[in-house]
Specification:
The protein is α+β, with helices and mostly antiparallel strands. Helices cover about 35% and strands about 20% of the residues. Strand 8 and strand 9 form a beta hairpin.
Length: about 230
C-alpha cells in the first residue's frame, strides 16, 4: 500500500447524496472549529508541505445518534485546503467494517483517507462524539516533553496496523478528552472528546504548551550562545 499523504487505503462504496450531513447548529459549530484550526495551520494545504497535499480531517456524530450507532460524519478527502467548510465537504459514514477495511458512505466526495482510524476511535469508546486529526510539527516534535501517548513509529497512517494501535492506545489511556500522536505519521496529532469544544480546545491548549516549550528551549540556547561569545563559563 502507498503511504503517500492523502492516499485512501481502504475500499469504499459512496452513494451520491446531496442532503445536509449535519443539522444547522451542529454544522455551524464544526465549521467554526474548522476555521480556527485552518487559521492556526493545523489543517490546510500548502505547496511546501506534504508534497502539496491537503492535510487534516475532522469528524463528529450527530447529537441524535445513540451510542450503539456506528454512523458519523467526516470531512471528505482532500478538502482541508478550502478556506471554509461547506456541507458538500462532509461525508456520512453509514457502515465501517474494520476487519475487511470496507467503508460505506453517503455524500458528494470520497471520505477522508483517515476514516478507518476515526471509526476505530468511535468503536473503542462509543461515548466519544468528535475526533480531530491535525498536523502540527510543533506539537509532534514536543510530544515526549508533553507526555503525549503515541502509536509506534513503524505504524503507518490509515492502515490496519494503525487501527489496532489506536484501539490498544484507547484501552491503555482512559482519560477523556484525549490527545495522542502518531510517531509513524509525520506531524500527526489526534484529539477526541465528548463534544467539539473540548476536542478543539484541547488541541489549542497543547499547541500553546508546545510553543511555550519551544520558546523556553530557544531562550536557553540563546543564553548558552551568549555565554560562549563573551567567554563566560
Amino acid at each position: 500500500m502507498s503511504e503517500q499523504e492523502g492516499t485512501i487505503q481502504f475500499a469504499y462504496e459512496l452513494t451520491a447524496n446531496e442532503a445536509a450531513a449535519l443539522d444547522a447548529d451542529r454544522f455551524a459549530e464544526l465549521a467554526a472549529w474548522r476555521s480556527i484550526l485552518f487559521e492556526l495551520e493545523l489543517l490546510g494545504q500548502h505547496r511546501e508541505r506534504y508534497d502539496g497535499f491537503a492535510y487534516g480531517n475532522l469528524s463528529c456524530r450527530n447529537g441524535a445518534l445513540s451510542e450503539q450507532s456506528h454512523e458519523f460524519v467526516i470531512t471528505a478527502s482532500q478538502t482541508s485546503g478550502a478556506p471554509a467548510l461547506s456541507q458538500e465537504h462532509l461525508v456520512r459514514i453509514t457502515h465501517c467494517n474494520l476487519e475487511r477495511f470496507w467503508v460505506e458512505a453517503e455524500g458528494c466526495e470520497p471520505p477522508s483517507s483517515e476514516t478507518v482510524t476515526h471509526a476505530m476511535v468511535y468503536a473503542a469508546d462509543p461515548k466519544l462524539r468528535c475526533v480531530f486529526h491535525v498536523h502540527s510539527p510543533l506539537i509532534w516534535q514536543q510530544r515526549a516533553a508533553l507526555k503525549l501517548p503515541e502509536t509506534a513509529a513503524e505504524v503507518s497512517y490509515g492502515s490496519p496496523a494503525m487501527c489496532q494501535a489506536v484501539a490498544d492506545l484507547m484501552a491503555e489511556f482512559q482519560s477523556r478528552p484525549l490527545t495522542f500522536a502518531t510517531a509513524g505519521h509525520e506531524d500527526g496529532i489526534f484529539a477526541c472528546g465528548h463534544n467539539l469544544r473540548d476536542t478543539g480546545g484541547l488541541l489549542v491548549s497543547y499547541l500553546a504548551k508546545a510553543r511555550a516549550l519551544a520558546l523556553a528551549n530557544d531562550a536557553q540556547t540563546d543564553g548558552h550562545a551568549g555565554q560562549a561569545a563573551d567567554g563566560s563559563p
